[in-house]
């Protein structure tokens, strides 16, 4: 069984910063791409940032220059450093990863989500 557990969400004022973490656990052999998505009330879930096993990163235009995705393979963890936060960044943030687990193969997994609220 593979689990992704996010942490680090909360309430912050506009212009502030938060750092999200997502730790994977289980009988994991390797993790390929890792991603952060977000979903605001009444909106579709959108891809915020991604990072490959080779550390290539991509960002949504709305967060470029403000958010940084990184990963620590030894800790099976992906991070999202969010700076200069805006009220429109308010959403539930979800971790997503392509995980190769022992005896299971490679599947896509989701975390349970963590709420980020930015006040104006």
Overview features:
120 residues, four-stranded antiparallel β-sheet, single chain
Summarize the topology:
Elements: E1 3-7, E2 10-13, E3 18-25, E4 28-39, E5 46-51, E6 57-59, E7 67-72, E8 77-82, E9 91-101, E10 105-110, E11 114-119
Parallel strand pairs: 2-11
Antiparallel strand pairs: 1-3, 3-8, 4-5, 4-9, 5-6, 7-8, 9-10, 9-11
Q: Which structural class fits the helix and strand makeup? A: mainly beta
Oligomer: single chain
Order of helices and strands: EEEEEEEEEEE
- Main sheet makeup: 7 strands, mixed
Descriptive notes:
By secondary structure, the protein is mostly beta strands. It is built from no helices and eleven strands. Strands 2, 4, 5, 6, 9, 10 and 11 form a seven-stranded mixed beta sheet that branches. A four-stranded antiparallel beta sheet has the order 1-3-8-7, with no helix packed on it. A hairpin with a 6-residue loop joins strand 4 (28-39) and strand 5 (46-51). The chain is elongated, with a radius of gyration of 14 Å. 30% of the residues are buried. The model has no long low-confidence stretch (mean pLDDT 97).
Short summary:
The protein has strands at 3-7, 10-13, 18-25, 28-39, 46-51, 57-59, 67-72, 77-82, 91-101, 105-110, 114-119. It is mainly beta and 120 residues long.
């Amino acid at each position: 069984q593979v689990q992704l557990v996010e942490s680090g969400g909360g309430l912050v004022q506009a212009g502030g910063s938060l750092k999200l973490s997502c730790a994977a656990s289980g009988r994991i052999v390797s993790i390929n791409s890792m991603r952060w998505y977000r979903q605001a009330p009444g909106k579709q879930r959108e891809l915020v940032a991604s990072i490959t096993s080779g550390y290539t990163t991509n960002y949504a235009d709305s967060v470029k220059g403000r958010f940084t995705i990184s990963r620590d393979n030894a800790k099976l963890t992906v991070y999202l450093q969010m700076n200069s936060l805006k009220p429109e960044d308010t959403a539930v943030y979800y971790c997503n990863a392509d995980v190769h687990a022992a005896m299971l193969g490679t599947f896509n997994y989701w975390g349970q989500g963590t709420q980020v609220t930015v006040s104006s």
